[in-house]
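Thread title: Can someone regenerate the structure for this chain?

I was given the following input by a collaborator and told the matching structure tokens would be attached. They weren't. Posting the sequence so someone can regenerate them.
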Amino acid sequence: MNKLDPLIFKIGSALLICQIFESSLLLLHQLIDESIKSSNSTTKIGDNYSKDTLGNLLNKLKIKIDIPKDTCDFIFEAITIRNSIVHGYLTKKEHMVKFENDGELLSLIADLDIKINQIRERAHLICEFIDKYLEKYGTSTEILKRLAEKNSNIFL
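Best answer:
Regenerated them for you:
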């Protein structure tokens, strides 16, 4: 086993949770749009949110649904955390140098653990919003997760 394997695994896990957070935001937008479409047939559904930045997705969400300021601030912190993961660990020289030192390597892994948990908290919060829209279909994110785990070899 290469000494960098635990770090590479942790970076992969961090990137995955970031993608789950972003995908959850996209799903929430689509569910809100579908809900609006159901009550107002002139509303266009299916804006291409996938081309929006994370900041734009969050700003559009604030317009669509009422989110308390403290909750909104908490969710918006995900942008900084996500960017530090996506643009930091494999691109910034100060992190690359730490790959060579065992103590620094453990510090990077611990830092990633903290950031993974921070993003996970925000993803769970988005799932709470998603669940409000999934209720009308008789399901929830937890039910969908169990179905996915049952039908997949990938466990998150």
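Residues 41-46 have pLDDT under 50 and may be disordered.
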